[in-house]
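assembly run, all chains below
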Amino acid sequence: MRPVLPSRVSHYLLLLAGLTLGCLSIAGEPGPVIPKGKGDQCAAETDYMRRNHMDLIVHQRDDTVIRGIRDEPFSLVECVDCHVQRDAENKHIRVDEEGQFCAGCHSFVAAKIDCFSCHAAVPDTNQEESVDGNHWIPNKRLMALSSRFSAPLKRALGHDQNEPRTAKPD
Amino acid sequence: MTMIDHLRYATLKPGRLSYGVVLLVCIAAVVLGGYSALTMEHAGHIITGMNNHVVWGLPHVFAVSLIVAASGALNGASLASVFGLSYYKPIARLSVALAMSLLVGGLLVLVLDLGRPDRLIVAMTTYNFRSIFAWNIFLYTGFLFIGACYLWMMMERRFNHHIKAMGRVAFAWRIVLTTGTGSIFGFLVGRNALDSALLAPLFVALSLVMGTAALTLVLVMLDRWQATLLNDQLLGSLRRLFVWFLIALVYFSIVHHVTNLYATEHHSVERYTLMGQLSGMFWIGHIFVGVVLPLGVLLLPTMRLSNTGRLVISASLALLGGLALLYVVIIGSQSTPQMLFPGKTILASRFGDAGFPTYHPSVWEWGLGIGGLALAVLSCLLVLRVLPLLPESQRIENVSSE
Amino acid sequence: MIKMNLEPPNPTNSLAARRRFLQRLGLLSVAVAAPALLPALSGATITPVKGASNKHRWGLLIDTSKCVSGCDACVRGCHEEHGINGTGNDHTDAQWIRKIDLQDDLTAKQSSLPMMCQHCDSAPCVDVCPTGASFKRADGVVLVNKHTCIGCRYCVMACPYKARSFIHEPVSNQKSWAPRGQGTVESCTLCVHRIDAEGEQQPACAVACTDEAHSAILFGDLSDPQSDIAKAMNKRHAQEVRSDLELNTGVRYLNL
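ok done. output:
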């Protein structure tokens, strides 16, 4: 029995049907809900961070580990410090747990991250206490430095707007 | 001038019950090996018998034996292409296929035993070229590539005149590969049991023994299924070569230990190996079962055994002996106390510097090691089923070889 | 490649050939040298080195005569600093520093000392690492870059001091300044997180030992002749453990 359509056309129709079904299946699904971090701004623009944080992390980690350069603003410790949430008992929740900062996006896009098998997923409680000369306290220094770095970064990215960014409710 | 092969080759035809049994056993072992690897990766090496003293355990013994046997199994082809023994030509293709399968099995065990096997891509793209380990990665993958080219030259008639050149490249490569494998241990200056240039040639000799043994056993097994592989000339040659290879192995072993006995700084290690906890594995495993018994079986004329029978028994014993030798080299070197303070005795240390670290392999390590071996056999059988590598008849037309 | 002239030798031909050869050699030299000259020509400035630099070489000087057998303050200090919680299995638990009690074979004199990564200048662990994860920082500290460590444990085999530990089980409650996880290898970092912080900070083991009033561990810059450690080593005879290996360790011992 002769096929109704040439095979090429029927293949294209099948592909189109599949894509449509696929789009329909994710259409209307809410995007990831990312808990808001502390302060008014991240170390860089949100859109820039969304697209480039993986490259920043990979570059920064070599700088930190191999070259011992630690005063860069894109430190993982800083990310955790700002973006960690507390639970009902006021204890920190790991950022790689479901719905938290990192896992929120990463489980949505199904890109597994491996950082927190080694890195601390909650801040050290000591960091909020007084400066003890024997412990490395990154956040106080870096909060001052991050504004120093984000300006040239914005220039480099072409984001030279001067208007204040409003905190968007997530 | 030409080495054109006038033999006809065919794929392996299953028909015997033993083929099905071997296949099923291998599949089961591979599945169990995979499960062991998954469990080890998930739970961590804490479930194994390895610890911070003995970091390389049974999986490494299996992996290194498979790799060493792989390089030696290429002998079958090298003897035909490089050394001009025409009665090895019918089994040359099989020899290359077996070598590649054994290497794949060994590498898989090695990779799955890594602490972070998910970082294999990192291992294949980031190199420190001062490390012999890094060089070995190239040597192993290069061996697979060269093996594939070698097979291609053999299988495609219009390229048959390239076989000799390819064979020489493959032979040289495999010697370098085995030297590199031995040097992984020989370059370790920090360990008294290993710091020796002799480990490289010892491993080359071990590859000759284990490779020939593996090839012999596979030949006999395949011959039971398709009686076109073995003939008296081949068997006689294998028997004679095997004797020389065993002598070479024990020569390097003897020189290694006698030299060590001359150096007082090595006495504690030698005492541990030759008279202490490792002596059973060394004397009974490596020397007696691995060298003396096979030599006896091969040489003594009084037994009512055919060439095939002698070869099968001595090959099996030699393989066990090879495993024992690798146990002594790999695990023994880690369970001997590290000499940190010459002239002093360590009384106590919470880490256990004072005593002899013990190692008891867990079921997961056995699973992983045997799984790798089974995968090597399985992949060899599958390749034989798909590609025409087995000779159809034993008649070789008399062509002159250079 | 220079093409050889296969015609019979003839004065005119060989002159021409020589001229061609010299021209090509000159061009080749310029082509090779140009990339090296370009930065100088463009007037590019050299950026100052941030982070670790080879102006310093960090090391430890341990006085075994001040070290007390039975005291493990340095071990506890280090392990607390880095969040190393043992499970009670001494052979699989990570150890960045350990106490060893010794007795001299001839005099029967007993002594005690801490053993940790010796931060060798020619570190065997750095040589053998296939991915280069085990590396030596510019200021002499030997570290494991756990991002590239594949957990092959070759460095553990290579270390003459058994200073490296392989993490056998999942780790939790890491300190933010000391990431550590299952499947990688680690060892004493000379507390680089403290060294890198502003002001020269002391490693946790040295601080703990001083707190115990033994002061057996002295940390400092071996390259600085004015530092305490350099002066102490000038005054007294410091030794390397296994000096026969000629590894030029950063950790030296007195009264060994």
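Residues 155 and 161 of chain A are 9 Å apart (CA to CA).

Helices of chain A lie at 7-26, 46-67, 76-83, 101-108, 138-157.

not gonna interpret more than that til we talk
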